[in-house]
């Protein structure tokens, strides 16, 4: 924090506001005192608003940089694994070899669900969207661990983190199995986190499942690339829910709900639907024009970002992973991949996208990988939610373990002035 000041002139008033600097990134102007001056700031969509102080993730949108506790995302994707990244996001430092092994073992011991949880799945139609099921089941976890949800108790917060990291793959895979009418597969402790997820997704009780190491590594990379992303819409939702003192399972369920939207985590599913709708490289120009037409609600899904005005560093890793997976599966000529690659090339050369600094984001290639692995598009955002759970929890934990106030934005009121109820 510094003692620098910004001066704001409002009418004949001159208001001094403190300026704070972080480790890196833009300074912030503390506007909390404005309410005493009878004015609010106005920032629908929070384009220029820092809602909190955080040490977890830093994004430099102009230069396409993403750091988790200071470590660049491409280095973590290359050298780490998802559970080690979970430890890093949660605790602030990379684990020692011994801490890493203990953490991996701890997570393995929490992967099963209480058997009563099975009943929640049965209440849904078989064709329910898996995000609806995941949202309901994760919120229901608060009914099973109600005696360990004291948000002021660090030990209880830690066990909750372990339970959520461990159980989300089981819940996600069971959402998929339920939609197929296939039996739920139980987690296996002899497999890695991502191998275990693939086993619960594609294994059947009739035969042993042998995970493909290339696909397991790709899944683990996808988990890492989706783990956290600063104060995005769903993470801000989790923080706001947490600021009321709500239990962590309810807060994570609120994050799942917010992520579902096609402008956010639902974009990966929307990208595949868009590529299928384009259908052929010959139709790309028509869809580019639709995306540019203000009167057409169509947008190029997987393109653009509130913060990145350069390549999303995650998209670069994802594009490389897509190539590896499709080559492994002999699908390097996958028509959807060809359409995506051509669409990216054309868009990046088009003045409309260049002028607005619209680049491919994390969602542009992820769906192509997931589809190649055999995962249906309806499960894409479920996988995003599973991976982002550590980010949501880490931000919730950072907030509730410090000083915080209930989040309560104000408004610019444009409704009726006071008027009396008409006498009958
Ligand atoms: C994620 O915040 C995060 O960090 C999110 C995320 C995370 O990890 O948590 O990174 C994950 O949500 C990635 C984004 C996934 N969404 C999509 O791919 C959906 C398509 N993208 C757009 O809906 C949009 O780009 C957003 C929602 C991502 C960003 O919206 P903004 O910041 O509010 O930008 P905007 O709507 O104000 O757009 C600015 C201009 C507008 O044109 P003008 O009014 O200036 O003429 O760019 C245009 C927009 O019309 N524009 C697009 C476009 N995205 C923006 N035009 C066509 N296609 C697009 N995809």
UniProtKB/TrEMBL annotation:
One of its GO terms (biological process) is tricarboxylic acid cycle. It comes from Marinobacter pelagius. One of its GO terms (molecular function) is citrate synthase activity. Gene3D superfamilies: 2.20.28.60, Citrate Synthase, domain 1 (1.10.580.10), Cytochrome P450-Terp, domain 2 (1.10.230.10). Pfam families: Citrate_synt. GO terms for cellular component: cytoplasm. It catalyses: oxaloacetate + acetyl-CoA + H2O = citrate + CoA + H(+). Belongs to the citrate synthase family. The active site is at 305, 363. It comes from the Bacteria. Pathway: Carbohydrate metabolism; tricarboxylic acid cycle; isocitrate from oxaloacetate: step 1/2. InterPro entries: Citrate_synth-like_lrg_a-sub (IPR016142), Citrate_synth-like_sm_a-sub (IPR016143), Citrate_synthase (IPR002020), Citrate_synthase_AS (IPR019810), Citrate_synthase_bac-typ (IPR024176), Citrate_synthase_sf (IPR036969), Citrate_synthase_typ-I (IPR010953). Keywords: Transferase, Tricarboxylic acid cycle. PANTHER family: CITRATE SYNTHASE. This is Citrate synthase.
